[in-house]
Structure to design on (214 residues):
């Protein structure tokens, strides 16, 4: 007599529980919040976001002379370095060495610095992983939420983060809506003086640095 194994009948897929009344109310509040300017003391570095086609990731460094925050950008078109106080592009490498062109070639997701930070390595956050600071020492918080997935929204707050019990525009602000490109990285510089939002197509910066001049 020949024995054969029979697969157990497939279990019907389970159903996700519906949102609770609390979750629906929170989602509705997030959906209703329009994009607004970041509050004082934050100021936009660029009048408009800087287009960066094929942006892969960003990282922060410190200018050894001025002490300004620097933002390094890695894209399909090479590497660039911006002064985060003024918005000036201070270095560009359109043809980096292939082994260093993207951060996924090393364990710490870093790329070689350029310009005033040449000779060091800058850790990157973006398509290949990694992360930036989401809080500052004096209580600012950044969050990415998706009440209408896949579009993501960036929230800046001074109330400790979700659930944001106060009204929008008082202690929390919806400052960026990624409805046209994928978010790559969102975060503060280690100094807490710069806020960056990078998508697959552009870079937006805000600063509260004393040297802001753009």
């Amino acid at each position: 007599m020949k024995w054969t194994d029979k697969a157990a009948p497939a279990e019907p897929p389970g159903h996700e529980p519906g949102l609770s009344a609390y979750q629906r109310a929170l989602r509705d509040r997030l959906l209703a919040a329009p994009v607004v300017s970041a509050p004082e003391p934050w100021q936009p570095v660029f009048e408009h976001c800087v287009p960066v086609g094929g942006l892969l990731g960003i990282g922060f460094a410190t200018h050894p002379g001025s002490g300004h925050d620097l933002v390094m950008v890695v894209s399909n078109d090479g590497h660039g370095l911006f002064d985060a106080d003024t918005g000036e592009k201070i270095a560009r490498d359109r043809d980096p060495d292939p082994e260093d062109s993207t951060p996924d070639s090393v364990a710490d997701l870093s790329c070689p610095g350029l310009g005033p930070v040449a000779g060091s390595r800058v850790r990157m956050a973006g398509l290949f992983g990694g992360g930036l600071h989401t809080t500052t020492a004096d209580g600012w918080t950044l969050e990415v939420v998706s009440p209408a997935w896949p579009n993501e929204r960036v929230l800046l707050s001074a109330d400790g983060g979700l659930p944001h019990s106060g009204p929008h525009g008082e202690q929390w602000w919806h400052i960026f809506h990624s409805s046209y490109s994928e978010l790559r990285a969102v975060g503060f510089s280690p100094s807490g003086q710069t806020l960056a939002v990078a998508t697959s197509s552009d870079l937006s910066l805000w600063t509260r640095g004393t040297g802001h001049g753009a």
Notes: The radius of gyration is 21 Å. The first helix runs from residue 21 to 32.
